[in-house]
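Recall from the previous lesson that a structure prediction takes nothing but the amino acid sequence as input. Here we apply that procedure to 7-dehydrocholesterol reductase from Mya arenaria. The sequence below is the only information supplied.
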Amino acid sequence: MSPTVVYDRFGELLAFMNVFALLFVFFLCLKGIYFPSSTDSGKTGGGFIFDYYWGTELYPRVLGFDVKVFTNCRFGMTIWPLLVCIYALKSYELHGFVDSMFVTTVLQLAYITKFFSWEAGYMQTIDIIVDRAGYYICWGCLCWLPALYPIVSQYLVSHPVRLGMSLTSIILAVGLASILANYLADLQRQQVRSADGQCLVWGRKPDIIRAKYKIEGGSEKESILLASGWWGLSRHFHYVPEILLSFFWTVTTGFENLLPYTYVLVLVILLVHRSFRDENKCSRKYGRYWQDYCDRVPPYLTAVRAFTAVHVAQT
Ligand SMILES: NC(=O)C1=CN([C@@H]2O[C@H](COP(=O)(O)OP(=O)(O)OC[C@H]3O[C@@H](n4cnc5c(N)ncnc54)[C@H](OP(=O)(O)O)[C@@H]3O)[C@@H](O)[C@H]2O)C=CC1
Ligand SMILES: CC(C)CCC[C@@H](C)[C@H]1CC[C@H]2C3=CC=C4C[C@@H](O)CC[C@]4(C)[C@H]3CC[C@]12C
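The prediction returns the following tokens.
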């Protein structure tokens, strides 16, 4: 049997995953209340619907597996590249070599490879340390991610687009450059923190804030907030190349249909919402140190506005 049967019967597979995920989230909801694996567990206080949506446990374990690492990394981030390859194979069976499919496949696989090379960093993000294992994260990674994230590849199977050599090269180059910028920004923060600020950022001594915060139990800890390099351009600057890279792998579909742009549009909403959530989290965690960082570095919408204003003034 060819793996492209997954493309042919994707609707049925997704329906099955939905039933499984909805039941699994229900199981997790009860488990967090009655048999928690960790201390951050129990009802949210918002009623059953909200418990189900948000989850009742931060780090549930089932049969020795960490549920969120499994749903987010081992399932979601693994099924995505598999689907991208299956859709590319289906397209090859139907139309032979199609350059738009080639570009989107290379860009998505490069992006996913980037994710796995930085996976340890993902363990420190709000998905893992703030969001409980409920409908939002678990159903999201089991159903929403496989349906939405590879949508461009799925669309190109039935709507092949011929880009030509020049467009193929340009989109590949700017797409890979955006992936690199996003990767370097994530890496820069990790390196500065692990070197305790004793390293160079863009050839200079980094501009850092030694931010103190209290952990449960009241003892004090210290962390580094980087205010130069990528992290000095704007707060959450790495979201800009994140949006651009997804736009580049989508623009391969042309402008005839809005459907393949769903992922980019949803991503913009998700990242804007996420930057507010993260700022809230950092402000509560670091207090006046975070305020100091905000005084030095503008939010990215301000940075984008300032960037556009300079360009408009120049032209
Ligand atoms: N495709 C998709 O669906 C999505 C992709 N992403 C991508 O995933 C990656 C991770 O993003 P995300 O999960 O949002 O988390 P971030 O990488 O933005 O990390 C946020 C955390 O970084 C720390 N931090 C914030 N500012 C600074 C600073 N100036 N210096 C040092 N540390 C700082 C804080 O954590 P601490 O408590 O450690 O200080 C903060 O909570 C990015 O590449 C992003 O583009 C993100 C969301 C969705
Ligand atoms: C239920 C839905 C409305 C929302 C579902 C949300 C989740 C599926 C997604 C929320 C945040 C997403 C991610 C965050 C960071 C990531 C790092 C990046 O390098 C790869 C993608 C991802 C793991 C991404 C995956 C989907 C979310 C968990």
